[in-house]
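Running this now, will post back.
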Amino acid sequence: MSLTNGDVLVGEIIHLHTVYEDTFADLGEVYGLGYLEMVRANPGVDPWLPGDGTSVTLPTHHLLPSTPHDGIVVNLSEYRLYHFKDGKVTTYPVGIGTSNNPSPLTDTHVTMRLEQPAWYPPSSVRRQAEERGEILPRMIPPGPENPLGPFALLLEEAGYLIHGTNKRFGIGQQVSHGCIRMYNEDISTLVWEVERGTSVRIVEEPVKAGVQDGIVWLQVHGQSEELGAEEQDKLWQQTQIQLTALQSRYPGIEFNRAHLDEAVEKADGIPRRVGEQLPSSMAVHSRLSHETEDDDGA
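Update: finished.
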């Protein structure tokens, strides 16, 4: 997807009716979505047996992360990877680390491309396997038993990879020991688009906000299938931080309280219009932006 200056949104929502054999895992692999984002966008629908003719929302509309738009950005809260290159962005669903083995928040870079990588289970993983009565070899060669899939990107952050998987249902869930998992078809594409030295930022942004063409957008990602009161409170706090930051950047913003309530209470990962910037204020913001650019170039 091509980006123009000022773009904060990519993609669009898709609505479809399932056929009997569909599952969220099947639809996710076809449309580039992970498990949790499908569940959050479709409350009350059985993810393993939606049923014939069920109306399903595919959350394929995204607000871009607040990071610089270059290289690879992984938003853990969204279970999503963004690859920015040559004025375009491609986005993929990912699996991430568990609460006991979280993926790191880091600013790192790609050091090497690996084709048909062997897996060397770390001692912590072998210990866990032994506790379950399993014995893991010190090296697992490429093949269907290898959890790294057909390709991997080695990161400068020691011990971490972006790689494929032999368990596709783990995409969009907390399943790994800290690495970033992708569908095999996705990593097979990404690995040839990324060069050594490409920046990789791993961030945590459960709430994203932005302004495009005078419209204020908000995207809120719930972090579990069912939201508790504590998580809801945290999302409201993070929303307030994002909206305050927007107001300082864009003068004259007016919010719609009902739309804000809906976005945060549903926390379904679907971008919503929650306000607008008054036209006169947009002109002021544009003038100030140009003045800042002129000052930077002086």
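The first helix runs from residue 24 to 31. More later if anyone needs it.
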